[in-house]
Design goal:
Lipase_N; signal; Rossmann fold; AB_hydrolase_fold; single chain; alpha/beta; binds 2-acetamido-2-deoxy-beta-D-glucopyranose; about 30% helix
């Protein structure tokens, strides 16, 4: 622990932590990495190319071999979420699709020991470590001229989406592109932008939201935000996973993204100023169309809505045109992101199982997590 941290803790009064009913219930068997350093045995990096897809190279972020990245190709970095690992979503969907179709390198990060169930709260507290270790790798790759900055694209699913946003705080140069695949909501509703993925984290941030009432965020978070099948349920999920359709909703984001890499029809979304306007049926059905996913235009901005099929191939191409301009004309709506709902997040349909039976106020817990990290983990 750094001396300043110690002093701040003393000033803040350690007793308030000890007497805290919420921190007190955290499962002591859940591992929280305090004072951990990078490189770290619990955050590992695996490099895949088309030739090594079954035998990835484990990278040492402080002793990189430039020959591993020859010839020069774009680099895609994949980040899993809660309970994940390097062969879990989004890796299992997106990595093969990338290697089949594009001449790229893929790095799958594995931080499974830090995000094990049933330790969601501990997982959230471990993310700054993952973010720092990722930033260390990227800073070294770029500074040593091994991979050009412009060729790096970070793709994070769920908690991995939030890691991508946090990593940006430690990067020497703002990344070119971050894709957030249904970035995680629990314990990020009240977060500041340093802890949460937002448009400030990369030159271009594209986000796909598929479980807006559950595990994923509702509010727009990027330059461009896509909302496939906006609503409580993704088509096919009740059939696929009747016991937990939410996890199926959530995982649709990496599935759609993987399909978008080589989709002949494409996922075409239509712009609407916000999901609220969309819900009220007030979007113009003749507004701008744009392609969602891997091949999204990097100049695009705004919120876009689309429908998909219930099973692969999910993409439906262009939506039908209907003329509702008479209704819409009455509302002078901007076609960009609307400001009205920026701070709004619906309550979770399901809360965090870890806290459910203990009747914990997640808002209160989240405030404490923010407070803690501002002390322990200065993000700048
Ligand atoms: C990757 O290798 C497979 C054969 O193993 C080949 O069919 C495919 O075209 C390769 N992908 C690229 C992008 O070169
Ligand atoms: C890695 O995680 C395990 C828990 O999964 C923990 O016991 C161990 O101390 C961690 N290692 C480091 C270096 O933090
Ligand atoms: C990509 O899509 C095209 C046509 O949609 C198809 O013919 C081709 O096999 C696909 N490529 C791969 C590697 O699956």
């Amino acid at each position: 622990m750094r001396p300043t941290t110690t002093v701040l803790l003393l000033l803040a009064g350690v007793c308030s932590c000890l007497g805290n009913p919420i921190l007190g219930i955290l499962d002591p068997s859940c591992f929280v990495a305090t004072d951990a350093v990078c490189p770290n045995e619990n955050v590992t990096f695996w490099l895949y190319s088309n030739d090594t897809r079954d035998a990835p190279i484990q990278l040492n972020p402080v002793d990189l071999n430039p020959w591993d990245f020859q010839p020069s190709r774009p680099l895609k970095i994949l980040l899993h979420g809660y309970t994940g690992h390097r062969d879990f979503a989004p890796n299992n969907h997106i990595r093969p699709a990338l290697l089949d179709n594009e001449n790229v390198y893929v790095i799958s990060i594995d931080y499974a020991p830090l995000v094990r169930a049933p330790c969601y709260v501990a997982a959230v507290r471990n993310l700054p470590l993952v973010s720092k270790c990722l930033a260390q790798l990227i800073n070294n790759l770029v500074e040593r001229g091994i991979v050009p900055h412009e060729l790096i694209h970070i793709i994070g699913f769920s908690l991995g989406g939030q890691v991508a946003g946090q990593a940006s705080n430690y990067l020497k140069r703002k990344p070119k592109r971050i894709t957030g695949l249904d970035p995680a909501k629990p314990l990020f509703i009240l977060s500041n932008n340093a802890r949460r993925l937002d448009a400030g984290d990369a030159e271009f941030v594209d986000v796909i939201h598929t479980d807006t009432l559950g595990r994923g965020m509702m509010r727009p978070m990027g330059h461009v935000d896509f909302y496939p099948n906006f609503g409580p349920l993704q088509p096919g999920c009740l059939e696929e996973n009747p016991n937990d359709p939410g996890s199926c909703n959530h995982e649709r984001a990496p599935r759609f993204y993987a399909e978008s890499i080589n989709s002949s029809l494409g996922f075409m979304g239509r712009q609407c100023s916000s999901w609220l306007i969309y819900v009220f049926g007030l979007c113009s059905t003749r507004s701008e169309l744009a392609l969602m996913g891997y091949h999204v235009s990097l100049q695009l901005s705004g919120s876009f809505f689309l429908k998909t099929r219930s099973q692969p191939p999910y993409a439906m191409g262009n939506p039908l045109e209907e003329d509702n301009s008479k209704y819409v004309a009455k509302f002078h709506l901007s076609s960009r992101h609307s400001e009205i709902e920026h701070d709004f997040e619906p309550e979770l349909g399901e809360s965090i199982p870890e806290l459910e039976d203990k009747d914990v106020d997640t808002n209160e817990l989240e405030k404490q997590l923010n407070w803690q990290e501002s002390l322990d983990e200065p993000l700048f």
